[in-house]
Design a protein that fits this description.
Layout lengths: L2 E2 L7 E5 L6 E6 L6 E6 L4 E7 L7 E6 L5 E5 L10 E6 L9 E2 L2 E7 L15 E8 L2 E7 L8 E8 L3 E5 L1 E6 L12 E4 L5 E5 L3 E6 L10 E6 L6 E8 L2 E6 L10 E6 L20 E4 L1 H10 L4 E4 L4 E3 L7 E7 L2 E7 L1
Length: 336
Amino acid sequence: SKCLLPTELKESSGITTINNGKSFWLHNDSGSDSEIFEVDSNCQLLRKVLISNALHSDWEAITADDNGNLYIGDFGNNANSRMDQAIYIVENINQHTGSSITAKKIEYSYANQLQFPPSDLYKNFDMEAFFWFNDTLHLFSKNRTMPFTGYTYQYKIPAKEGRYAVYPSDSVITGTGNMNLYWVTDAAISPKQNKMILLSYDKAFLFYDFSGSQFFQGKRKDINFNHISQKEGITFGSEHELWISEEGGIQGSSLANLYTLSFAELFTDVHSYDTDRKRKKDCLIFDHGTMISFLQREKIEDVINLMGQKMKTTEFITPGMYMFKQNNQSFYFIFN
């Protein structure tokens, strides 16, 4: 956790940035005023702006394009019975200095939804996640099916005013089991647009090495957090830096956290350990068997986890990143 969000954002449900993480735009969940809030990376409130012509049925996500325009998704649909989904376009927010602004509007419907609400098996028309990519808004459904199927569906909508009927363009199974651990609460794409991520309460699903907008056809890496909370907003600050916002307590009963994390080690070029001892690289990557063999061969008795805790190498080590010292040098290794 980096800091606690201001009191005004106890029910934060979306986050984005237009200046690489120097500040963020957020908004609250349903039942709030039609306002967006700018905070800095230390959670200090910089300003709030009223969207004067926008309704706030159930705002669930916010994203930005390359020109500094914001898009607000009023498409929360817990009961799967809505027929008035909308996305508001707030143009050139950084050039606006007033306390209110008017927005353009996108209206859309799901062409594949025939009942309002559908039966439990088909309740996959809730929406809390989207981002802008190549003049298109890419939306990802929040699965509420019973029994839970684990699917999230991708929809594409032109990022301009209009009325649209959309069909799914792709899908992926995030996982099966408890829906709270696998449904999708937000999404983001990296500045270089070669990585995208889906958020859930205790993990995120990272996709990379994809072509165009076929995100699910690329490689996937699941990032597990060390706790569960109602995380509802995610954005990239830089290519390997993520910022995550949450809703505070139960329906905003306490202050909400703003989190930050780096996953640069997942995409750093590394070399394997050189057994002739002429050189060692900064970071080593092992599977379990190779890790045990390496630690025994090098007679390393203690390692340190990222919490600074010393652990005996004879103890069970969970996957993650660790440090050890040898010959007055520090080395890091990743056990996956």
